[in-house]
Design a protein that fits this description.
heterodimer; A: 603 residues; alpha/beta; Pyruvate-ferredoxin Oxidoreductase, domain 3; Rossmann fold; 4 domains; 19 helices; 23 strands; 18% strand; B: 341 residues; 8-stranded mixed sheet; 12 helices; 20% strand
């Protein structure tokens, strides 16, 4: 034993702490981390896990941050209370960054100094012990010893751990037995060798039997399947690949016809240009096509996105945002694509963007996206990000769609055609800006769809008035979607001092930000925007408040820019921005401090 | 008396708008052949989907098959748009027209991958070796040393699209000339009877920018240097005796998916269209001799199509009722429960 912990007695801190596990990727540590996460979830208190991983297969640093909070805070906390050290490459830096008093659990077999006298240092020969029970798998199993160490320190129920191990190894007896043995040995070692009683501990809460954890990407995938997706085309890119793979995974169970044929085609395309072209073809032919990608993919898809808009073809693209510009930080999170999505492609364009903030909304917008696309005959974006898409969040179960599919204004028979006076593919016959369309194969008033200028009958035209009228109608059409799109979620205080507008995965940090501002004596109303173009209620929210701050995970304040462009000039002076992005999931303290700064400046 | 085809339609049901291409353009002859082929084959015009990219050739779907839906997409992306449409409606007959810029340069990636998937479509490249719409720049299929009136000669080796297609396992590969009416018509009709990717590279002179006699893709050059592999007769399944005489000499018959036959009458030596190596040899030898080999170069009826390979529902996906597209409420309960355990 090189570093025994010293015995301290302190007041207990129940269900309120942050664990940071530092490992290298490719060592199997994700399994151990998920066992900790799920065993805590099993005990019924709010817990969230964030995987900070590198763009690499093996050997680069990875951190897993677990936040336990009875208040339901899900952001990474400001300080690390318990640090697990498994990675020699980040060892010294991880140690250095700790606040005094932190508990350090480290793998004693990594022969590096552990010089933090102001911290609690708890070593365990994890690799040696692991090799003893299985020499071959020693490297992987070593990670199970820190599960045991954490379980001992915090008092996690052994039954909860066993259940999490069962789920993680899908009930495979040998794997369950081996890993449980390692965890048990870890617990015993800690109990016998560490004369230290942690002041952080867990206490069971009543668990909602309906709740479970799921990644946003899988929620979108299921939503799409329940939305009747009939073609998925995709090109692999972090962090959206698991969305496509989830669709592929669920299709055999959920989408077979009576004879066993699949009711959804899946194509791994040669690139994003092809992936989006396939979505266009599927939508034109009357199907529900979708692709998923991240920022670099959207950049590549932009030309065809303009064709969707101008030739009025339905389709769905999910953007799981990672950090740009360029290749950027491929495995980190950001809301940096919003303004690009809203106006993607050259010329004047405007696209519907659905912005879920929870896994329930990922599912819901997953199916609704197709209805909006077909109703408004346009390309619809789903906008998620790495934090929401690849981390696990709680739900009590997904809700079945509340009505039949909306297939939009499609003429399917001559009788229907006969009821329309003066039909033209691009003629607005009923004033909503949305023309009727017919499908290939129907023989009903066929046209050659095109990306070139066209008149109301779809015939090529360069006529100035025809072009102007077409563009005005398109504007009217997309503007007309505002009241139909998901309305903002508003939490309003009686005194309308400060309104904060935010969107997407910031939902998981906003409560904590709100509480911090509350502690500073500021009452905050919040408005979570869930779609572009914005619902009229967002403007009303701004109107009702003395001052508004738009809160975003990017550098420039992209929604702020859209708001300034679209809202009446007299409202603009009272709208401010807090935009910050460093690749990390949003930490409440960072944003609340920045909000306070803006408040000071304005005062 | 007005002539009717096998489904009792006049030819006028297959025509399109007035062409705006240069008078004498080879592309217009190809359009006429497409109209003729679709009419003679008795295809329902509404069951055809016309697809194209960008360029002179890609404008032509406006000039044929006015009763068919079509999509004039963006430059080089016609194959992917066709793929998406085919996935959700495999019963449509996809007839695509592209150019050498659209296919051999900007769209070469999609050309390659749509062949690899063996998408069920007819893919015609109207190949003239120049970019017409942007006024005569060299394309990637133009021969080395080709010289425009002004500027430097082309320095780069040409891409042979037929050779590429054969190397990629394309199930039907042919080359023809816009001025060879009988051969081109038989090949287009056979391509329409094929199930899978039918690729036809049609040399189609650009009368405005590349019709000087020394240009390999000019009328006079192709006429003088056309190396015909075989005389072609198409015999439709619905009328096996349609005005086709049995040749005196040797011939082979290709049995096509819809029951029609393409008869290949041997000209000099017999060409084995089932052998990729001999097809590639024919292409390379004629290239070396500065000639154009035309005819059915390669054919393989045993390649599964893209939709076959995916095990899709027999019903085109666009025709599925909502209960097959949206799983039941009970199933969602089971999904939720599976995460809770």
């Amino acid at each position: 034993m090189t570093a025994l912990g010293t015995k301290r007695t302190m007041e207990k801190t129940v269900n309120d702490f942050v664990i940071n596990v530092a490992t290298a990727n490719g060592t199997g540590s994700q399994t151990s981390n998920l066992i900790i996460l799920h065993s805590m979830f099993e005990m019924g208190f709010p817990v969230s896990g964030k995987n900070l991983f590198p763009s690499n297969i093996s050997g680069l640093p990875t951190w897993f941050i677990i936040r336990v909070s009875d208040l339901g805070y899900q952001a990474p906390g400001d300080v690390t209370n318990i640090q697990v050290l498994m990675n020699k490459d980040t060892w010294l830096k991880d140690l250095e960054g700790l606040e005094p008093g932190a508990i350090v659990v480290y793998n004693e077999d990594i022969k590096l100094p552990v010089e933090r006298e102001d911290c609690v240092l708890l070593g365990m020969p994890m690799t040696k012990m692991a090799r003893k029970i299985n020499p071959k798998l020693g490297r992987l199993i070593a990670n199970m010893y820190y599960v045991g160490a954490i379980a001992h320190l915090l008092g996690i129920d052994e039954s909860a751990i066993e259940k999490a191990v069962q789920v993680q190894f899908k009930g495979k007896e040998k794997a369950v037995e081996l890993n449980m043995q390692a965890i048990s040995e870890g617990i015993s070692f800690a109990r016998e060798n560490w004369e230290f009683e942690s002041h952080f501990c867990v206490e069971s809460r009543e668990k909602n039997p309906d709740s479970f954890l799921i990644e946003g990407n899988e929620a979108v995938a299921l939503g799409a399947i329940y939305g009747g997706i009939s073609m998925l085309s995709w090109y692999p890119i972090t962090p959206s690949s698991s969305l496509a793979e989830s669709v592929i995974g669920w299709l055999p169970e959920l989408r077979k016809d009576g004879a066993g044929g699949s009711t959804c085609a899946v194509i791994q395309a040669e690139d994003e240009l092809a992936a989006v072209g396939m979505v266009l073809g599927a939508g034109w032919a009357g199907g529900r096509g979708m692709t998923c990608t991240s920022g670099p993919g959207i950049s590549l898809m932009s030309e065809i996105i303009g064709l969707f808009y101008f030739s009025e073809v339905p389709g769905v693209i999910w953007d799981v945002n990672r950090v740009g510009p360029s290749t950027g930080l491929p495995t980190r999170t950001q809301q940096g694509d919003l303004s690009m999505l809203y106006e993607a492609s050259h010329g004047d364009t405007q696209h519907i963007v659905l912005i879920p903030g929870t896994v329930d909304e990922c599912f819901e917008f997953g199916w609704r996206a197709f209805d909006y696309a077909e109703r408004f005959q346009t390309m619809v974006f789903g906008f998620s990000d790495l934090d929401l898409g690849m981390n696990r969040w709680e739900t009590t179960g997904f809700q079945y769609p509340d009505g039949p599919m909306d297939r939009g204004k499609v003429i399917r028979s001559q009788e229907e055609m006969d009821t329309i006076v003066n039909y033209g593919r691009y003629r607005d016959v009923d004033g909503d800006g949305i023309p009727f369309r017919t499908l290939p194969g129907s023989g009903l008033d066929p046209i050659l769809n095109r990306g070139t200028g066209h008149d109301e009958d779809g015939v090529y035209s360069e006529d100035p008035q025809v072009y102007y009228d077409t563009m005005e109608r398109l504007k009217r059409k997309i503007d007309g979607s505002r009241p139909n799109l998901p309305e903002p979620v508003i939490r309003e205080e009686e005194d309308k001092e400060l309104g904060v507008i935010f969107y997407g995965s910031m939902e998981n940090t906003i409560v904590e930000i709100d509480d911090m501002l509350g502690e500073a004596g500021i009452s905050v109303s919040t408005c979570r925007v869930r779609a572009l173009p914005m619902h009229p209620e967002v403007e009303d929210f701004v109107r009702r408040h003395d001052m508004t701050i738009v809160l975003e995970i990017n550098r420039d304040g992209q929604l702020f820019g859209i708001i300034r462009k679209e809202f009446p000039t007299e409202l603009i002076p009272k709208i401010h921005r807090v935009a910050y992005s460093d690749g990390m999931p949003p930490r409440a303290r960072v944003y609340s401090d920045k909000i306070l700064e803006v408040l000071n400046e304005v005062a | 008396m007005v002539r009717l085809n096998v489904i009792e339609l006049e030819k006028s049901e297959y025509t399109g708008g007035k062409s705006s291409l240069c008078p004498g353009c080879g592309h217009d002859q190809i359009s006429n052949n497409i109209i003729q082929a679709a009419w003679e084959n008795g295809i329902q015009p509404e069951k055809i989907a016309k697809m194209s990219g960008i360029g002179c050739s890609s404008k032509t779907p406006a000039y044929f098959l006015g009763k068919s839906h079509g999509f004039n997409t963006v430059h080089g992306r016609m194959p992917s748009v066709t793929t998406g449409a085919n996935m959700v409606n495999k019963d449509l007959s996809f007839l695509a027209v592209s150019g050498d810029g659209d296919t051999a340069s900007i769209g070469i990636g999609q050309f390659i991958h749509v062949i690899r998937r063996n998408l069920d479509m007819v893919y015609i490249v109207e190949n003239n070796g120049v970019y017409g719409l942007t006024k005569g720049q060299y394309s990637a299929t133009v021969e080395k040393g080709s010289k425009k009136k002004k500027g430097v000669p082309n320095q780069q080796a040409p891409i042979d699209l037929c050779a590429m297609a054969i190397n990629l396992g394309c199930s039907f590969v042919a080359r023809s000339f816009s001025g060879s009416k009988k051969q081109l018509s038989a090949l287009i009709r056979a391509a329409m009877s094929h199930r899978g990717m039918a690729f036809i590279d049609v040399i189609s002179p650009c009368v405005t920018f590349a019709n000087n006699d020394e240009s390999y893709k000019s009328y006079n050059y192709v006429k003088a240097n056309d190396e015909v592999l075989h005389i072609l007769d198409y015999i439709p399944h619905f009328s096996p005796l349609e005005e086709v005489e049995v040749p005196d000499g040797e011939f082979r018959e290709v049995n096509l998916f819809d029951g029609s036959t393409l008869r290949l009458e041997t000209v000099a030596a017999e060409h084995d269209y089932t052998d990729a190596v001999s097809a590639l040899r024919a292409i390379h030898e004629s290239e070396k001799a500065e000639r154009h080999v035309t005819g059915l170069l390669y054919y393989d009826e045993n390649v599964p199509t893209a939709t076959d390979a995916l095990g899709l529902s027999d019903t085109p996906l666009v025709e599925l009722a909502e209960d097959l597209l949206r799983p039941s409420e009970d199933s969602l309960e089971r999904v939720n429960a599976s995460f809770r355990s």
